[in-house]
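user:
I keep going back and forth on a fold encoding question. Separate attempts, laid side by side, tell us more than any discussion would. Would you put together a sequence-and-structure record for a protein of your own picking? Write it directly below this note and I will take it from there.

assistant:
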Amino acid sequence: MTKHIHWLSMLAACALPAAAFAVDAPGSADRLEEIEIVAKAIVGGGESPTQVKLNAFQPSSIIGLAYIANSIAPTADFATIANIAPGVSNVETNGPGLSESKHLTIRGFDDNKYNVTFDGIPFGDQNDWSHHTTSYFPAKLIGQVFVDRGPGKASTIGQATFGGTLGMLSKDPRSTASFIPTYSYGSWGTRLEHYEVNSGVSEDLKGGSLIASYQKMSTDGYRSNADMNRDTYYLKYLQPIGDHTTITVLSTYNKIRFTNPGTVTQSQIDTLGRDYGLGTSATATDYTGYNFQFKTADFEYIGIDSQLTDNFSISNKVYTYSYNNRSREKPKTKVVSAVTNYIGSYKVNEYRTSGDTFIATYKTPYGDAHAGFWYDQTHNPRYLYGLNYTQTGNYARDINSATVQFPVVAANANTAVGAPYYNFSYNMLDTARTTQVFADYDWKPVDGLLINAGIKHFVFTRVIDAQVNGTKARKTLAYSHTDTKDMGFLSVNWMATSSWSVYAQAAQGFLSPNLNQFYVDVPDQNTIKPGETFNLQAGTVYHQGPWNLGADVFSVDFKNYAYSGPVNSSGDPAYIGIAKGAKYEGLEVEGSYEVGGGLSLYANASSIKAKFKGSDLDVPTVPKTTMAAGLAYNHGPFFGSFDEKYVGSWAVYDTLTNPDVAGGGSSRRADSDSYWIGDLAVGYSAELTTPYLRSFKVRMQVTNVFNQKVQVLEAISASAASAYTGDTFNVLPERGYFLTVSGEIY
């Protein structure tokens, strides 16, 4: 924790003189405090888990605290929560939040092609902008989730405005002092303890308030030998200064240890069971002792929000976050002198990212002008070397053993026997720097009409210093690459009536180059390009009385699709190519109806068509259809919900060496099966007048309530004849139960 505290103190030194705070996110003006008696949805529309807003500029769904606190198991992560939104699909193989999401898609864009933010700050893995869903923010820390399906405005920041933004807002301190213990017990040996302390709004601190919590979660997991243990610490402090300024300090720290099963074949499912993950025999490569990870992650910011005059305000967040992953993986057998050894890999990925977001707003009689910047920099050492496990499975590491010698490369003396990196598959330092400067204007020419126009200047630089680059050729690489892009944004919202609005958007998205595009012996500046999108979309929102409805159509022109060419004699891609890209088109609808008596009905659906421009092939892992439908109830002490989620089939190829040519270079295509999954939640809560207990809540979540047997196709063999033993699946958990009890103590 020493480094953790050190970084927080540095942030304080940097942020306080800045007198600024962060870009507002949807709903950020509301105090997101969870109470044990059931809260109403913050946005109108009854008890529906998702809501749409009349003032939308682009398709967006808001998932409120009531749904997170009452309908989702407390073990869940943001992927579990977002799954209910239109156009979203999530593949979880171990239970809600009990392992990392395998596929979390928005409009068919897989994780690493859209932003994920926390309190408006983008974060993610530095190699490809993907996310480890269990590593930072369990459900009990989240006050709201929103899914923006589009590039947003010029002020929307992140490495991947390309596919949209999945945003989280942190839970706020309660206005009254309290201690809230939560205990949850569930299927597969799952246990969760969460202890939360709230100071309440303190007069002695001139309105300051604090929330601090500790969570301990452990599980055996649905899959065999897929256990996870996690400790989570959280602190958020709000301090008003005078009538027009607020300081926010937030810090989280996570420590996780888990085993990491891979996909399974149909042959393994039939012989070992649907829940097979890892084995217990030290004489097999799937031994649990050869496949586990240990991670730590922290996230901090200090922000100031200040209304300097009636017309002028500034906001800023200075932040840092880190991720440190030590993993054992990729075991294989090797026979040396008639003795069988088990050879694996020790992989390290650690990064520290720090940055600053700033926005200034000036109100004029005809609208609001905004200008600001985002600066982000990362230091990312990455390496992988061979391990030698003894036949007894004692995890013994022997880096001097010839059994872990990688091929010597004459062009790199460091790979020779006994040299510093002879047993490293790769060893590199990756640094990245991002600057985005933006300005936009919300123009109100007449009542009911709002036009937003803006521009953003984007600069991204990646520098690689590799003693051994991430290729089988294992050569050195010292390389720097910079991409610059100017992007335009235009959005219109027209309030046709007080309950009906129409909006349209034309905007550009951007995806910073993936580190994998540099995994070639000699990078080519002409084939390392950022992904780009041009989004055209239009929609409408109706919100009156019990109805909350939204619909939109979209067309996304995806440019610069990066791919790997056929392998060369070293086993590396002969080249990294840039295809023309793809075209995404679709329709999305969502709505809710408040029946009365605490009962609401809701449904959403999306239809997506995504084709490569050059070959007319379907883009892989894009669900053709998604749907959700359900009901929510909240009346008196009782509450509950039921929802069904449908995910349509998607295309899977054995390989895509060039999607611009007919067939894309693949030998075989298959399609995943579509599926429905239903979840049920019921609960009881009450206020009390006892001397110490203010309120309590008991709830039960049942996941996959109809016990559907679902397996999602992940990868396929080049030959259909070997599908039984060659095609691999992610198997979804069968029915699970999670009972949670919590109370609010004075």
